[in-house]
Write the structure tokens for this entry.
Amino acid sequence: MTAYPDTSFLCSLYRRQDHTAGAIAYRLHMKEPLSASPLLEFEFRQAIRLQVFLHSRDKKMGYGQPEADQMLADWESDLASGIVQIVPVDHDAVLRMAEFLSCTHAMKGGHRTLDILHVATARHLAARDFLTFDARQKKLAKAIGLRTPL
């Protein structure tokens, strides 16, 4: 596996945002499927659902159900075609790596739990690149030797 994304990358890939051009450009140059763990897939789907909830409370926030449905349909289509693949992970190994990253970096960098878990998953899967638009997560990935090309 060459690269492992986080949710900011997936959201930029599946919905027009500030970083969409960068996400699409990177994806177009990949020679292999984009890999995601079951946890990353869950967080991506949950992020979409949260935006629909926020939009239902305040139309200036989030986005509506039709856009969410399209994002999820595009995701499912990419899974079915093999453009994206869900890869199995050893959850115990990921949690051990996450605990190590938390002990060595969280108090200095303010990293969130899921951010640490995604970086730990990338390390566990032997990814070379970590795809994120999140500055703190990028710093953590770089600290453990992952490249952050975006």
